[in-house]
Specification:
Elements lengths: L1 E3 L2 E3 L7 E6 L2 E6 L3 H11 E6 L2 E6 L2 H10 L2 E2 L8 H4 L4 H14 L9 H29 L8
Antiparallel strand pairs: 1-2, 3-4, 4-7, 5-6
Helix pairs in contact: 1-2, 2-4
Length: 150
């Protein structure tokens, strides 16, 4: 991009690309577009609406990397690789492409805020309580102070 006379000139932007070979075919991996970034963010976070408050919590982040790659990987006919097809690829291939996209897409390297991290911690603590809850119920039943209900 260049700026001259108050005009932003985006015609000179060249997207970064990487050739990918898999299953005897060539693919082209692009840096992340705005659409790819938004779909990745949506896949990473679950939106919760409580009254007038909208919150974003982590949601299946392990699946989000393939969503980003599917939005950046094109086949030899310049068609995007369907997510369903991409999820059949080896995990390490997806992760390698994901890391390349993040590294080569400046918009993907946004720093998290303290508030976002605190919300993630709160969400994870709630998940831990759910995991621990069945064990606590069992302990209460087996406690010597437990009373039988007839």
């Amino acid at each position: 991009m260049s700026e001259s006379n108050g005009i932003f000139d985006f015609d000179k932007i060249t997207r970064k690309t990487q050739t990918v070979k898999y299953g005897g075919q060539n693919f082209t991996l692009f840096d992340a577009s705005e659409k790819a970034t938004i779909e990745y963010d949506n896949a990473r976070r679950k939106v919760i609406v409580e009254g007038e408050e909208i919150r974003f919590i982590p949601h299946e982040p392990e699946k989000a990397s393939s969503v980003l790659v599917a939005n950046c990987l094109y086949d030899g006919k310049n068609q995007p690789v369907p997510l369903e097809d991409l999820r059949k690829w080896p995990h390490h291939a997806i992760e390698t492409m994901f890391e390349w996209i993040v590294e080569n897409s400046p918009g993907m390297r946004r720093k998290e805020t303290r508030e976002e991290i605190e919300e993630q911690i709160e969400h994870l603590q709630k998940r831990l309580k759910k995991i621990d809850a069945p064990g606590l119920e069992e302990q209460a039943k087996n406690s010597p102070n437990a009373t039988a209900v007839s």
